[in-house]
Amino acid sequence: MQLSLTYPGLWTVLLLLISNLLLWEEVSSLPNCAIHNGRCFPSMKKMLDLAVNMSQDISKQVFEMFIEFDNQYAQSHQLIKKSLKKCHTSSLHLPKPRIKALKTHPVVILKLVKSLLAAWKVPLYHLVKEMSSLENLPATMLSKAREIEKKNTGLLEGIKSILSQVQNRNYGNEKYTAWSGLASLKSDNEDVRKFAFYNLIRCAGKNALKVETALKIVRCKILKQLLSHFHCIPF
Questions:
Q1: How many structural domains comprise the chain?
Q2: Residue 90 belongs to some domain of the structure
C-alpha cells in the first residue's frame, strides 16, 4: 500500500487540536514527517491517532448528553417504556464476529466510517436546530449537541483525507442511509417530540461507538502493516 509523501491539512489539524477546535481543514500540503522508503510514517500515525481520539471524544460527549437528557426528560415522561425505533444507520455495521472485522481491508472499514458519519450530518444539524424547542433545556446539553455536530463534520473530513492517501482502487459501492425523523422532532405533541429526541440521541451514541471501534481496527491494521514493530489491541 503506497502512501504519498505529504498529507493535506495535517499540520493545521494538529494546531487546531491544540487549540481545542478539533476540526479538519483543507489547506496546502505541508510535509511533517520522517520518510522511510518513500513513505511518510509519523504523519499517517498522527492522522489515525487524531481520528481515534476525536471519535472517542464524540462518544464521550454523546453519552454525557444522553445521561443529561435522560435525567431531565426521560424519567418524568416514562420514555423508556415506549417502543424504541430502529436507528437509521442500523444497516451499516462492522462485519461479525470481530475476528472477521479484523480481517477486513482497512479501506472497506474506512468507507463504512465515512458512510456512518455522512449519514449523521443531517440528523445532528436538526438535533441542534430543534433542541431549543425543549422546555427547561439545560445550556450544557445544547452546547454538547453543537460540539458533537461540529466534531462529526470535522471527523468526516478527516476520514476523507485519510482515504485519499490509502485508497488505490474501488472496494465496492458506498452506502448512505437517509434519515426520516424530522417530522417527529418538530411535532406539536410534546411526548412525541421528546421521545424523538430520546431515540435520536440514543442512536447517535450507538453510531459513535461503532465509528470508534471501526477506527481503532483501522489504526491497528494500517500501522501494523507500515511499522513492523507496531503492536496493538483494537478492542
A1: 1
A2: yes
